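fyi for ur records
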Amino acid sequence: MADKRVFANLQEVSVYDSAEFTIGAQTDYNLSLQQANTFSNVSVARMVEIITDATITFKFNSASNHSITLTATQEKYVIDPLLERLLVTNIFITTTGSTNLKIKLFP
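which gave:
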């Protein structure tokens, strides 16, 4: 059973952002500029979920940050606010071909 202290600082949220889209080969695709459904209700995301059907790399907050690779077999990448303390203000995505993506952002 989870320790109740872990959940003491969590707040219920009533807003989120979500986008489902397909992109072709891209380098540092700027999510906040290209997808109007992202970073509009949630300007700073504490929980992020990325789902893809192809191998992609992505960077949080700046195109100059180091890449994280998500393979097609992994399918999903999640930043859990209980485990990680990253505040996400943008995502830069690199693909080598047609890729379907689902991205969810929560404050």
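Residues 4-7 form the longest helix (4 residues). thats all i got for now
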